[in-house]
Specification:
globular; 236 residues; mainly alpha
Amino acid sequence: MHIPHGTLPLLADYFSVILIDILLAGDNALVIAMTVRVLSKPQRRIAITFGAGAAVLLRVILTIGAARLLSIEFLKLLGGAFVIWIAVKVLADASSPPPAAPDRGSFLKVIWLIVFADITMSLDNVLAVAGAAKGSTPLIIFGLGLSIPFVVFSSNLIAVLMDRYPAILYLGAAILGKVGGEMMSTDPFITRTLHPSAGMIYAVEGLAIVSILVIGRLLCRGRSHPKAADRDQLVR
């Protein structure tokens, strides 16, 4: 069977893009799953789909200048801090079950958080896809569009597991701490001014993980104690 010239390299490029999507979708799915936990189960799928879809559209636009994204100072620094904030917030809310019917404002806020977190965490992903696509716009769109079902499926699965096994929240928070710490310590401004070594980056990641777990746990207890006090007051 005759294979047209150039078909095999093209198939190899598509395979590379698919493999990149599978390998790099995990962090994004995790932060999205933790973000939508404040929504009811029926609204989670809608928020994940809309949020991931909007983020992918922005990724397609940003991929044109993908090589410049990683050189923008303070972008990864702010993005890493934002990821750490999400992890702390989720742990702080861990003592309260997801509401049955959150208001519309919460729903829109979650979508915005998904888009912002996904974009800031996807800089390396965008650059990897752009490199594998070798400048081919159709291949770039294919690769980034393909990430939607991966992220949507993974986010829904992780969210369900967190509901069933709350301890996963702490594991997820620790992973986000590592991601956020790595993003902040590899920001172009930090690398230009401090020249962090691999050991320093690991130390920042460890500090971020410990800070998230400790602060999140303290805030979680602080929110649960007033409720107990209110019950005691009612008994009296």
